[in-house]
Model the fold of this input.
Amino acid sequence: MWQYEPGLNDMGTPDALMLLPYWTNGCIGSEEGLYYESSATTPYHFLNVAELSDQPSDPVVGLNYPSSPDVTEGIQHLQMLGVKYFMAETSDIEAKADTDSSLRLVGTVGPFPVSVTTGSTTSVQRRTWKIYEIADSAQVTPLVNQPVVVTGVTQSGLLGDKPNPQAWLKASEAWYLDAADWNVYEAQSGPKSWARVAPNATNLPEKALPVVHVSNIRSGTESISFNVDQIGVPVLVKASYFPNWQVSGAKDIYRVTPNLMVVVPTADHVTLSYGYTPVDWIGFILSLLGLGAVVLLWRLRPVAYPAPRHFSGAGGVGNRRLHLTTKVRGRMASLDPAVLALVFKAYDIRGTVPDQMNADLARAVGSAFARFAGSGRILVARDMRPSGVELTQAFAQGVTRAGVDVVDLGLASTDELYFASGSLDAPGAMFTASHNPAQYNGIKLCLAGARPVGADTGLREIMNAVVRIGTDGDPWVPSTGTVTQADVLADYAAKVRSFVSADVLRPLKVIADVANGMGGLVVPAVFEGLPFQLEVLFGELDGSFPNHPADPIQPENLVDLQRRVLETGADVGLAFDGDADRCFLVDDLGVPVSGSATTALVAAAMLEKHPGATILYNLICSKAVPEVIRERGGVPVRTRVGHSFIKAIMADTDAIFGGEHSGHYYFRENYRADSGSIAALVVLEVLSRSGRRLSELRTEFDRYSASGEINIEVSDPVAVIDTVARHFDGARQDRLDGLTVDLGDWWFNLRPSNTEPLLRLNLEAANPEMCSARTAEVLSLIRGH
Done:
């Protein structure tokens, strides 16, 4: 067990601490195993943590948590649960632990720098882990008195009486919190010779048991065994009760408070084994039947879907022709590996048409991805760029040549493709170059469930396979796949709307600048049926971007939107990028809202609906973001930049939301994929509920001054970063993604580009004057290297 405090992640995450048994070869156990092993033990885990922590998370609602730490009782509960080690981190808890006779200090780790927030002030403290061994924590122990059976904690079922979880929790929590009852364990059931008592009874009847000696205790991954010198005398096993436990050498297993086990030995050697219940066997059989059904469905003919939306060229949705009237000229000679290395980026495939991106490459990627994904069908969609029609056709040819079916979604936004991948549980390929100029195109790939494919999660393997195809040709397969069409726009729009309560929305005036990108198709569909007054700027689908580039992070591309917001007196402006997965805000005064402020605003809204949830933010977001998350009762987790990292950490932490300063917003209930449209609706719901203007509301989240991202060309990015790190040697630093240096009232991050000899600087300070001065200082250091 370890003390929980808000700065825990600075000293090792809980899951890292769970590995203590592994790193110490089983010498140190972890009570967290009880928490994950059996949900019925979870309440007592967190009650115990609350006794041993200054600022516990108290995540299980409805429990009687202590109002302040009680280390003495906390240690007694650890002994009750069979926990062998306790780790303390704050000075007050360590001081109390040092004087407890049941604890023996066995090690100290650290110190670690920990960010501590008190009110609006954040400071850095240096803390250590103190590790204590707990006396009297054997896993199997004799009982002083015979257990008693609590009545009224079961309910009738088809197969007889079964536990009533709420009744048992209520009775067992009352027992757990009253030390006067601990001499007599309460049982959910037991032999007729055990006394019966009502729930929450006081003065439990004590019937002393003969003294029994327990020896030779052995604990494996799925078993517990021990010897006794007397049979027929109950003994306590300090492991979470679960119906799967089976016993030999004893009559039965009885569940006792808080969620432990008592057995009555019938032999001098007792073994408990974790096995399978009838429910488990039914689950196995149903799983096998399900796998058989999947194989059967895979062998059937593909389902015919409605015709897709197709694009006939610049200017709009046309006559559903699949091909362009002219070919994209140019050929990549033998899929040159040198060119491929430029086109395959960290998170996608992207280049200029036709010298880098053309039909040959798309066809080879389709074949390679089909084999990598291992699915019977692959989804494909594209944005409004004219080259997308031929490229998606060539990609489909590569996929079907590999014997895999293609479902063509036609024109779609990237987040619509992610939705389809999640809802249809199929891999997908989105042809888009996002915010890049018209001469570019690219491919964003994902596995079934919208799981990302990046350089470290498959993109390198796909590139190597493309090189082999360029050298040796496509591997032969006995049969080819088919191409069908589907239109998921209506389902996608309904999914986006499900994130807000339509009945609280007000008729706000909304201006959406979609920059001739895919927002022109998806934004009206999302807003359909909602009470907003929507006006779309540059809604014609035109991949030549005749009005301005589809890159809303650049201030010059927001000028038209700002002007229109002021002209119409609109409540908010929304700026989407080319593939409509990113969204930036402009307030009612025409002032842009940063991606960090939007992340903080949406995080606060999500925490209103999901109290105590985990929220992710990338490391170039403003410090205001984790401050807001903590103030609203959430758990902030800092990540690297990039969707593949964020989605992976979101899966690991079960985070409800994640935001990036670049305008990507990720939602757990959207298959952990990003969606600018969902973020936009969440903000509009906040404005509707609060009745406040965005220019007023944003002041809660705009707390510091930022430099914006500055790109600096350097000959040796790694050497420059090392030089900067040495210069700020006395400051708090980390290398999570590039170099982050935190000097209290200002901080900066310096990251190398994935593809160019560039460093990207993001700096934030307490006020504009300090921000300008510190930015000049760091830039001088970089350029003077």
